[in-house]
Amino acid sequence: MRATVTVMLKQGVLDPQGEAVRHALGSLGFDGVEGVRQGKVIALDLAEGTSEAEVTEMCEKLLANTVIESYRIEMG
Amino acid sequence: MKAAVITFPGSNCDRDLSDAFRAAGCGVTEVWHKDSTLPEGVDIIGIPGGFSFGDYLRCGAIAGRSPVMKAVADHVHRGGYAIGICNGFQVLCETGLLPGALMRNAGLKFTCKMQTLTVATGDSVFTRGYGEGAEISIPLAHHDGNYVIDAEGLAALKDQGRVAFRYRANPNGSVDDIAGILSENRRVLGMMPHPERVVDARVGGTDGRALFAGLVDALADA
Question: What ipTM, to 2 d.p.?
Answer without folding.
Answer: 0.87
